[in-house]
């Protein structure tokens, strides 16, 4: 069926790196953009950016430049989020979400992964 | 840092109607961009509830409806049910430089 399957929870020390995966199935991976959304504990949703699955070109929201990297492996229909130099404030659930919309201004997120909890603690 | 403002909580008895507002500005909702709504049940991922202001994806009950006017949008839930207890978020495009897509602050719906 159509789904996004994310990798499991991670516990990391400050300064380490983490790579979260998001494997798509049931649809043509390169036909839809992939977005990343962060949800800190007890907080709301925050759009981190997206990656064009056709070209591999990433776009990062303000606040998610430098330590955050979006990448793809289209051969296995998988998107990745890598976070380096982890800080305690990076502790959150990270969701991948497929986008729909004829234009950028119409984009909404119609398919979500179940989320990956990344905990940063010494 | 959300630029779309929602009430923190709303509540209602089973069967009642509740509405959730989502207030934006001239760089998002007021510019005419679509508003979308998501439901997040406890401990789960968000789920698309309404897209393009008032459209329901397949499988979403018609108890959920959306509207937009000016710089605001609203989500209405009629015939409130226990399983509607969740967090609800609006989302829109924003033409400012910080982010293309912005979410609302979120509203917790409690069924009394």
Helix/strand/pairing class of chain B, anyone?
mainly beta
H-E string of chain B: EEEEEEEEE
Most extensive chain-chain interface: A-B, 25 and 28 residues
Main β sheet profile of chain A: 7 strands, mixed
How much of the sequence lies in strands of chain A comes to over 45%
Principal-axes geometry of chain B comes out as globular
- The number of distinct β-strands of chain A equals 11
- Rg of chain B, nearest Å: 13 Å
Describe the sheet with the most strands of chain B: 6 strands, mixed
Structural class of chain A: mainly beta
Give the overall average pLDDT of chain A.
Answer: 97
Features:
heterodimer, A: mainly beta, seven-stranded mixed β-sheet, B: 112 residues, mainly beta, three-stranded antiparallel β-sheet, 0% helix
Give a written overview of the molecule:
The complex is a heterodimer of chains A (122) and B (112). Chain A has 122 residues and is an all-beta fold. Chain A has strands at residues 3-6, 10-12, 18-25, 34-39, 46-51, 58-60, 68-73, 78-83, 92-100, 108-112, 116-120. In chain A, a hairpin with a 6-residue loop joins β5 and β6 (58-60). With 112 residues, chain B is mainly β. Chain B has strands at 9-12, 18-23, 35-40, 47-50, 64-69, 72-77, 86-93, 101-103, 107-111. In chain B, the strands form two sheets. In chain B, strands 1, 3, 4, 7, 8 and 9 form a six-stranded mixed beta sheet that branches. Chain B is globular and about 40 Å long. Chains A and B meet through β5, β9 and β10 of A and β3, β7 and β8 of B.
């Amino acid at each position: 069926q159509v789904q996004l399957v994310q990798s499991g929870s991670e516990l990391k020390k400050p300064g380490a790196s983490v790579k979260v995966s998001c494997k798509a199935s049931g649809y043509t991976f390169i036909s839809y953009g992939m977005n990343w959304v962060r949800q800190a504990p007890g907080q709301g949703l925050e759009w981190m950016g997206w990656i064009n699955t056709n070209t591999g070109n990433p776009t990062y929201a303000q606040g998610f430049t430098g330590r955050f990297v979006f990448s793809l492996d289209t051969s296995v229909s998988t998107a990745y989020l890598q976070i380096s130099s982890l800080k305690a404030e990076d502790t959150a659930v990270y969701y991948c979400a497929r986008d729909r919309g004829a234009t950028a201004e119409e984009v909404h997120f119609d398919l979500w992964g179940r989320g990956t909890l990344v905990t940063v603690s010494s | 840092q959300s630029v779309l403002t929602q009430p923190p909580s709303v509540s209602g008895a089973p069967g009642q109607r509740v509405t959730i507002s989502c207030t934006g500005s001239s760089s998002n909702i007021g510019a005419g961009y679509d508003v979308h709504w998501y439901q997040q049940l406890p401990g789960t991922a968000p789920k698309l509830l309404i897209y393009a202001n008032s459209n329901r994806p397949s499988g979403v009950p018609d108890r959920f409806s959306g509207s937009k006017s000016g710089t605001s949008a609203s989500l209405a839930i009629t015939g409130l049910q226990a399983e509607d207890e969740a967090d609800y978020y609006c989302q829109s495009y924003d033409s400012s430089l910080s982010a293309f897509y912005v979410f609302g602050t979120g509203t917790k719906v409690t069924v009394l």
